[in-house]
Structure formats: structure tokens, C-alpha cells
């Protein structure tokens, strides 16, 4: 789902954002000294490469003079010199590429681990999704998976490539501008009886040529920043919906929803295609100008220096030196022209990562508004005081609520659909950010959500999740599956599969119950944990769950709409609607089971 983030930001702001994204690795990480050392090596190799280019320019003068003078001895000597220059050029290029790629890889690895750690900490991944679906307009960032996987790869790649390219351009400019100044000579002319002279004429020509080119390039290419930003977002939205179709393939097939989903996919791909067409049209204009700009520069120096050559003021070797030096200076001054489209992608990527970083920081700082603690004592109980729960849009569901569950209790939570029963469970679990108050929840508590998560891979790992399967014996794993009425899976512990697609809804619920029977928690919170089961299976499994928690000295709280589930519970919590104008929509009415 897309959000309306603003892609256009001032260049100074973008540079500050890029610096803020790069600083943690190079300034504060545990790898900072290694990273700085590798960066210095890359810089040193860039300097060495520019020095080799200067040697190559000097070689041009001697070589072409030898051709003009038909001096065979000098010709063959310079061919040998060229071999050494070419060798060092190749060696430096290869070494620079290798170290740059290693540094980029290490940087991306560190950034990915850092962002993954923060995204997965404090349930930030969950809070971002809640906020994203609750807001419209300038809401939280879309597609965090794409930002972590693709944007970080692009950011580290473009930052290293562009920054080293800019450094190379600056070094080349510093190294060749003096050389070009000396080779250009002085251009003199008379006007109105007065003599005028311009030293270093080719330097001024190169400067003017590149200033004009840069202004025109910026004018043509400016829309690319926003177009690249939106292209990344549309591509991610299209990919996200493809994943959703795959995940919900059975439900879509049963609902005969393929045409609808096909239409949705076509709509999202239409956004990808439409924006990409606008992008390539803008790139076409940019490529047309930069190609003309580059081709014109090939002969520009020859045209300007031709009068001096034909007058005999300079030899062929010096003409070739001037052309080579002009080309180097012009390339350096044209760095912005040549890299405008890449800079546009770089800025868009930095903006996306910055917004993701800010969103994670904001949602981490607001985490844990409910003061949650573990009760003391040999027989801990659950208690909540002053509990107020709201929806992401601010609508109050419960206000100043007090709840208590003692060991041995079995409580059934009921109420109208959408009244906040599952949200109350999320609050007690400590993951709901839109709640306030105090809650004491026994440490040995386990929650079964409406839709249990079943990871792909080996069945033993899916059963023991999130703990490692090695913590349990094969006998215990098989027994848990058998007790959860999944005996056919007991001998398939080492089978690998996409279990969320392979198992039916009822089998997935029984697998979640098998986890409970395996781990034997004292306290259990079950949210519609048997809604996909038949009555007999539901009765059998509920009896086993209640027996287990009571034997462990704990309690069980359930959410269920089926009346038959009530026979397994001794108490009721009913969410009763409050009159309009009250502090909250509902209140909890506690009672004994009938």
C-alpha cells in the first residue's frame, strides 16, 4: 500500500540525510576502523589512478611528436612506456574495484543487521503495520521489506560509486587543470585599437562548456527524482500484492476471486508501467542531451586549437596533449551531467530509507505505554488496573478497566464482533501500542492468535516455533502432535514444506494447540483457537488444554463465539456496549458461568 511521501527535498537536506545514514557505520560501529581503513585505501587508489592518467597525458605528447617527426627509436621506446602505464592502470582499476565491492558488501551487511534488529525489536514491525493501515496521506513508510532488501543495496552501491566517482573527478580536475592551462597558451586579439589576451583559454572554454551543460541537464533531469521515488514504490506495491495472492491462494480460489485479483494486479502493474513510461520519456530527453554533449566534446578541443596547429604554433603531440587534458577536465566538470540519473535514484533511495528510519525511531519511542510486569509469589495471578484501550484512530474501546484472573480460573471473553476482544488480548500480551494502564501478567503465559503463524521448513521447527526444535525430544514432538489430533503428521517431523499452504485451517489450529501441549504453559490465552474444528475435536482439545493449565497451577482465558466452548469455562467476561457519549464504547461485565 502506497503512502504519499514527498520525494522532492532540497539538495542540502538530502546530503544531510545521506550523511546521517552513513555515519553510524563509519563513525560508531564496531567495524568503523576497518571501514575507515578500507575507505582510505580506495581513496589512495583513486589518487594513484589519476596519477597514471597524468603520466598517460604526458605520454601522448611524446608519442605523437615521435609520429610527426618519424622518429622510430622514440616511437618504440614510448610503446614500452605505454605497456607499463597500461599495466599499472589495469592493476589499480582491478584492486580498486575489489576493495570497493568488499567495503560496500560489509557496509550493506552491517546496515541490514542494524535495521533488522531495530525493525524486529519492541514489535516495531507490528506497530508500523498497524499505523500504516490506520492512516492515510503522509503515513508510515510502505513496504519495509523492500527498503531493507533493495533500498539498502542501492544506497550502499550508489553512495560508494558516486562518492568515489566525485572524488576521482575532483582529483582529475586538480591534476589536469594546471596542465591544460599551460598547454593552452595565451589567446590574443585586437578590438577597437586595444589588445586583449586570455591565458589558459582552454580552461575557460571547458568551464563555460560544462556550466552550460550542467544547467541544461538539471533542467531536463529534475523530474527524474520524483519519478524514481514513485517507481520504487509502485514496484514494491506490485510485488507485495503478488505475495498476498500466493499466501491466500486457496481462499481466493474458493471465492472464485481470481478475476478480481487479476484486475488488482493489472491495476498495480499499470501504475508500474505508466510511471516507467514517464520515466523513460524523461530519460530519453536526458540521454539525448548528454549524448550530444559528450559527442561534441570529442572534437571541441580540436576545433578551438586547430588555428594554432595549422599556423605551426604547436606540434601534433601538443595538440593531442591539449585534447587529452581538455577531455579530462571536461569529464571532471561534467560529472554531474554524466551521473544525473544515478543521482536522482540515489536521492530517492536516501529519502525512502530516511523516512523508514524516522518511522522506526518514532514507534520505538512510543512503545510500552502499558506498564506490564510479572506478578510475584508462588501462585501468580493476572491483574489489570486502569486499563484503557483505543483503536489506532483514537476511538476508545475500554476505559479505566480493572480485570483479575486467579490460578484455577477459566474465563470466556465474549462480545459483539469488532468490540475489541482480540485487542484486549494484544494489550495483555504487551504488543498493542494504543493502550494505557497497568497489567500484571504471569511470565509463563502463552497466546494462541486467531491466525497462527506456521513457518516454512521442517515440521519439527514449525511445531517448536519460536524455540529451537532441538530443545525437545522426537518423542515429545510426536506426542504433542498425537494429542492435538494430528497423528498423521507424527512421522513427518523432518519433512520440509510450505506448511501454511499445505495444512488446512483446522490443521493449522491443531498445530498451534500442539505447541501448547508441547510447551506446557501455566497460563493460556486462546483467541478463537478452535473455530475451524468440528464439535468433537473442539471438545476433546479444550478438555486437554484446561486440564494442562490447571495441573500446572495456572488459568485459561478464551475468546469464542460458539456456545459449546462455554462448558469448559467457569467465568464470563462480556463486553457490553456503553451509551453514546460515554468515555468508551464498551465495558467489561464479569459474571459466573450459568
Any overview of this molecule?
The chain is α/β, with parallel strands linked by helices and 594 residues long. Helices cover 62% and strands 13% of the residues. It has helices spanning 11-28, 32-69, 72-120, 124-134, 144-184, 201-221, 224-247, 249-254, 258-310, 316-333, 335-338, 340-365, 421-429, 459-464, 474-483, 499-502, 505-519, 535-551, and strands at 186-191, 194-199, 370-373, 382-390, 396-405, 410-414, 435-440, 445-448, 457-458, 496-497, 523-527, 555-559, 571-577, 586-592. A hairpin with a 2-residue loop joins β1 and β2 (194-199). The longest helix has 53 residues, at 258-310.
Number of strands: 14
Number of helices: 18
Gyration radius (Cα, Å) is 35 Å
Low-confidence stretches: 1-7
Structural class: alpha/beta
- What global shape is seen? elongated
Roughly what percent helix?
55-70%
Give the overall pLDDT as a whole number: 84
Which helices and strands, and how do they pair?
Elements: H1 11-28, H2 32-69, H3 72-120, H4 124-134, H5 144-184, E1 186-191, E2 194-199, H6 201-221, H7 224-247, H8 249-254, H9 258-310, H10 316-333, H11 335-338, H12 340-365, E3 370-373, E4 382-390, E5 396-405, E6 410-414, H13 421-429, E7 435-440, E8 445-448, E9 457-458, H14 459-464, H15 474-483, E10 496-497, H16 499-502, H17 505-519, E11 523-527, H18 535-551, E12 555-559, E13 571-577, E14 586-592
Parallel strand pairs: 3-7, 6-12, 6-13, 8-11, 11-12
Antiparallel strand pairs: 1-2, 4-5, 4-7, 9-10, 13-14
Helix pairs in contact: 1-2, 1-12, 2-3, 2-5, 2-10, 3-5, 4-12, 5-10, 5-12, 6-9, 6-10, 7-9, 7-12, 9-10, 15-17
Amino acid at each position: 500500500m502506497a503512502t504519499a511521501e514527498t520525494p522532492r527535498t532540497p539538495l542540502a537536506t538530502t546530503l544531510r540525510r545521506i550523511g546521517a545514514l552513513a555515519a553510524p557505520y563509519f563513525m560508531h560501529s564496531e567495524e568503523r576502523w576497518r571501514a575507515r581503513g578500507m575507505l582510505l585505501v580506495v581513496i589512495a587508489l583513486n589518487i594513484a589512478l589519476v596519477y597514471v592518467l597524468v603520466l598517460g597525458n604526458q605520454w601522448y605528447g611524446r608519442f605523437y611528436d615521435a609520429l610527426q617527426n618519424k622518429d622510430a627509436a622514440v616511437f618504440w621506446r614510448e610503446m614500452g612506456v605505454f605497456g607499463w602505464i597500461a599495466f599499472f592502470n589495469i592493476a589499480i582499476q582491478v584492486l580498486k574495484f575489489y576493495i570497493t565491492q568488499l567495503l560496500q558488501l560489509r557496509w550493506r551487511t552491517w546496515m541490514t543487521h542494524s535495521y533488522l534488529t531495530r525493525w524486529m525489536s519492541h514489535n516495531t514491525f507490528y506497530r508500523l503495520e498497524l499505523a500504516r493501515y490506520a492512516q492515510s496521506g503522509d503515513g508510515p513508510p510502505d513496504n519495509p521489506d523492500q527498503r531493507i532488501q533493495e533500498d539498502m543495496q542501492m544506497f550502499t552501491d550508489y553512495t560508494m560509486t558516486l562518492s568515489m566517482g566525485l572524488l576521482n573527478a575532483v582529483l582529475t580536475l586538480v591534476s589536469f587543470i594546471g596542465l591544460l592551462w599551460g598547454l593552452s597558451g595565451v589567446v590574443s586579439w585586437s578590438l577597437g585599437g586595444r589588445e586583449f589576451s586570455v591565458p589558459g583559454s582552454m580552461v575557460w572554454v571547458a568551464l563555460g562548456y560544462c556550466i552550460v551543460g550542467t544547467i541544461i541537464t538539471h533542467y531536463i533531469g529534475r523530474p527524474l527524482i520524483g519519478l524514481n521515488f514513485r517507481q520504487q514504490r509502485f514496484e514494491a506495491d506490485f510485488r507485495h500484492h503478488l505475495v498476498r495472492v500466493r499466501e491466500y491462494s486457496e481462499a481466493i480460489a474458493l471465492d472464485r476471486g481470481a478475476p478480481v485479483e487479476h484486475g488488482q494486479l493489472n491495476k498495480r502493474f499499470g501504475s508500474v508501467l505508466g510511471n516507467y513510461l514517464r520515466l523513460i520519456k524523461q530519460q530519453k530527453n536526458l540521454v539525448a542531451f548528454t549524448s550530444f554533449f559528450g559527442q561534441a566534446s570529442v572534437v571541441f578541443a580540436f576545433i578551438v586549437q586547430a588555428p594554432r596547429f595549422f599556423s605551426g604554433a604547436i606540434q601534433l603531440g601538443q595538440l593531442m596533449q591539449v585534447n587529452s587534458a581538455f577531455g579530462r577536465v571536461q569529464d571532471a566538470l561534467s560529472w554531474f551531467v554524466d551521473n544525473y540519473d544515478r543521482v536522482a535514484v540515489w536521492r530517492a533511495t536516501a529519502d525512502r530509507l530516511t523516512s523508514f528510519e524516522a518511522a522506526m525511531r518514532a514507534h520505538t519511542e512510543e512503545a510500552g505505554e502499558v506498564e506490564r510486569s510479572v506478578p510475584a509469589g508462588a501462585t501468580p495471578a493476572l491483574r489489570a488496573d486502569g486499563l484503557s484501550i483505543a483503536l489506532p484512530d483514537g476511538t476508545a474501546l475500554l476505559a479505566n478497566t480493572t480485570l483479575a484472573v486467579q490460578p484455577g480460573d477459566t474465563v470466556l471473553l465474549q462480545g459483539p464482533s469488532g468490540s475489541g476482544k482480540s485487542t484486549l488480548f494484544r494489550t495483555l500480551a504487551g504488543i498493542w501500542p494504543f493502550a494505557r494502564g497497568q497489567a500484571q501478567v504471569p511470565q509463563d503465559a502463552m497466546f494462541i492468535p486467531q491466525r497462527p503463524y506456521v513457518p516454512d521448513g521442517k515440521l519439527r521447527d514449525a511445531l517448536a516455533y519460536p524455540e529451537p526444535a532441538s530443545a525437545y525430544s522426537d518423542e515429545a514432538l510426536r506426542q504433542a502432535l498425537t494429542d492435538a489430533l494430528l497423528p498423521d503428521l507424527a512421522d513427518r517431523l523432518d519433512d520440509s514444506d510450505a506448511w501454511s499452504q499445505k495444512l488446512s485451517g483446522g490443521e493449522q489450529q491443531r498445530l498451534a494447540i500442539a505447541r501448547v501441549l508441547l510447551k506446557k504453559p501455566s497460563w493460556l490465552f486462546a483467541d478463537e483457537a478452535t473455530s475451524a474444528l468440528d464439535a468433537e475435536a473442539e471438545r476433546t482439545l479444550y478438555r486437554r488444554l484446561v486440564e494442562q493449565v490447571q495441573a500446572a497451577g495456572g488459568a485459561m482465558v478464551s475468546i469464542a463465539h460458539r456456545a459449546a466452548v462455554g462448558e469448559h469455562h467457569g467465568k464470563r467476561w462480556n463486553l457490553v456496549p456503553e451509551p453514546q457519549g460515554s468515555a468508551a464504547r464498551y465495558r467489561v461485565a464479569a459474571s459466573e458461568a450459568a
